[in-house]
Amino acid sequence: MAARNRPRAPLKEEADAHEERDLWTKIVRELQELQRMSERVQVLTTETQREEERHAEGDASLEDLKILKKLYTEHQELADKEQLTLQSVLEWNDLLIALRTATEGGDRGGEKKRKRKIDDAGAADSPSSRNTKVARSMSAAPDPHNGLQKDSEVAYRLPKQKNAEGMWIQCIIVGIAGDGNKRKYEVQDPEPDEAGGHGTTYKASANALILIPKDSAGLPPYPPGKQVLARYPETTTFYRAEVMGTKADGTCRLKFEGEEEVGKETEVERRLVLDVGNK
């Protein structure tokens, strides 16, 4: 199979713009959620004051106390959720500022070429010096840590680098630190480094990881036209692709973005075709 020769500059610019648009969309969505929560808090405050005033001069019944407890509990839960959501917005905004500053400055950090079988396209080997702290998913999204555990195979999104084409690489989780929203993962590239030593390790948040299923059995087929992230055959790099169809054995027929050969379809094992979602 011939190596893939993909134009780098257009793909890089498109990827940069795509990441910034995604971040802005998430920030707007979180702010809308904060507005909804704020409106609900105002309603709860009014209802709570009314209940407290109603029982100020007399003994409250058991049912009255249950109503008050329910109001207090919802108020507390909303306050906690507002705090987490606001912190997420601040972190997304910090990252967006870092991306925009780096883009306008014409550089997103140094680059070290990664050697991949069959694929001579470069991807960053060292983390960027810019801030990439993204610790939480949106409050309305599923738990981003679900299924992520030691020895799990994952697709890991490298920090942005100048002229870096491959944003996602296959890694293995080798360590986990922290709990809840502060949980961080240590992931390792299975490929040896250029000196033949152990693969590079990275620190990552759940937002930068996508779990790779252990096998393809039982995985549902993707509908034609679905935009996915898939591992290019005989490499450990993932690229965006469009699903063209599914074979009887579950193998996906894909068209990779930037493929040199017009109309080329590539078959990829189902477990290595990932739903990128809002990442």
From TrEMBL:
Sections of the chain in a coiled coil: 27-54
Keywords: Coiled coil, Nucleus, Transcription, Transcription regulation
GO CC annotation, single: ADA complex
GO terms of biological process kind: intracellular protein localization; positive regulation of transcription by RNA polymerase II; SAGA complex localization to transcription regulatory region
Region annotation Disordered: where it falls in the sequence: 104-152
Cross-referenced Pfam families: SGF29_Tudor
Cellular localization per UniProt: Nucleus
SGF29 C-terminal domain segment(s): 144-279
Organism domain of life: Eukaryota
GO MF annotation terms: histone H3K4me3 reader activity
Protein name as annotated: (Perigord truffle) hypothetical protein
